Every structure is written in C-alpha cells, then in structure tokens.
Amino acid sequence: MRLGDRFKVLKDGGVIDRDTHDSLVLLLMRFEEYWHLPINDDNGAGLMTYLALMLMRFKRGEVTAAMSESVYEEIKGNTEAFQKSEKIIDDIESILKIQIPLSERQYLQANLHTILNPDMI
C-alpha cells in the first residue's frame, strides 16, 4: 500500500482527522523534494505512522513518555544523522507551526534514523 493510500485509510477509519491527513501529505512531499529523503512503504511507514499518531496526541493534549536515556545516547552517537534529524524536526515545527516536546522529538529522531542511516537498524 502506498503511503498516500495509507493516510487515506487512517483518515477514513477515523484514526486521524483531515487536518492531520493533509499535514502528512505535505510532510511527505517536503521529505522527498526538499530533504531528498526516499520515503516509501518499506522505510517510511514507521516514520509517517509515528507522525500521524503524534499529531493526533497533540490535539488531545497528550505527549508520550521519554525514551530510555541509553537508547537516546546511541542515537545521538551518530552525529551526522542526529544533526540532520534535528534540522528536519525544526523544519517540521516551522511548517506545521507546532513545538515538538523533547520526548516526542526523541522518538521522531529514532524514526528518522531508520531512513537517514538504514544500516543502523
């Protein structure tokens, strides 16, 4: 299933609302066209699903718990991918006009690392 179709299924199933659907479509285009990240079902389903659920949590006033410090330190250890993920997350915040809490940033960075550094998986 293509990611665009996945977004539609999530919207039609009531998992995400239309605004979140539209944000995901916008971010997918931004990842591919601006950041030159090859997002597809194989590598991007986790990232895009995480973004969808994160945005819906924000609408409910919820935030996920922080990840284990040791896991986060491992992610930070890959300096190049970590720095790029920071820039991408800053870009997401700017585009969507949101502020992503640290705990959510950590998991978002982990998901971005699967694309930025596929050998890390």
Description:
The chain has helices spanning 3-12, 18-33, 41-59, 69-77, 79-96, 102-116. The chain is mostly helical and 121 residues long. It has a single domain, classed as Orthogonal Bundle (PTS-regulatory domain, PRD). α5 packs across α6 (102-116). One of its GO terms (biological process) is regulation of DNA-templated transcription. Residues 15-121 form the PRD domain. It comes from Entomospira entomophila. This is PRD domain-containing protein.
What would CATH call the architecture?
A: Orthogonal Bundle
Tell me the strand percentage band.
under 5%
Q: Low-confidence runs (pLDDT<50, min 5 residues)?
A: none
Q: So what's the overall shape?
A: globular
Write the layout of secondary structure elements.
Blueprint: H1 3-12, H2 18-33, H3 41-59, H4 69-77, H5 79-96, H6 102-116
Helix pairs in contact: 1-2, 2-3, 3-6, 5-6
Brief account:
The protein is an all-alpha fold and about 120 residues long.
Q: Any descriptors?
A:
single chain, 121 residues, mainly alpha, PTS-regulatory domain, PRD, 6 helices, PRD, PRD_sf
